[in-house]
Amino acid sequence: MAEVRQEDREAYLAMNMLPEFDAADVRAGLWDKVTGLQAFARHRIAVENAALERAAKVCEDQRAVFASEEYSTGQPLGSLAERFACTRCAEAIRAMKGPSNA
Predict the structure, then answer these.
(1) What is the spatial distance between Cα 59 and Cα 70, in angstroms, rounded to a whole number?
(2) Is residue 1, in this structure, part of any structural domain at all?
(3) Structural domain of residue 89, as residue ranges?
(4) Any domain includes 100
């Protein structure tokens, strides 16, 4: 089951015309297990995860630049430190990703 945020609830309400008492229940989190609301949460998580993966890929691409012969010649220790930093950044970014099986 995906973690539902208030933004998911509001998006769900924007797409579904509900009586005001039902909308209040949605905003209070009482509908968080409803299939439609879960779909909004899963979509948000997928979009966030895709953006984080793109950011991690940028770090890995930069790591490849730092590993290039043109860059590392004359500064092998600096190149090593920068590659290490890029790797750690990519790992940290991926650690922020939500559950992919939500």
Answers:
(1) 18
(2) no
(3) 6-95
(4) no
Residue 65 pLDDT > 80, yes or no?
A: yes
User: Is 77 among the domain residues?
Assistant: yes
Total tally of structural domains belonging to the chain: 1
Distances (CA, A) of 29 to 34, 43, 46, 72, 87: 10, 18, 21, 54, 39
- Integer CA distances (angstroms), 64 to 22, 70, 73, 74, in order: 53, 11, 14, 17
User: Domain for residue 101, yes or no?
Assistant: no
Cβ contact 3:98 at 8 Å: yes
Q: What pLDDT is recorded for position 71?
A: 83
Q: Is the pTM of this model over 0.90?
A: no
Nearest to residue 94, comparing CAs of 49, 32, 27?
Answer: 49
Question: How is residue 5 annotated by DSSP?
Answer: -
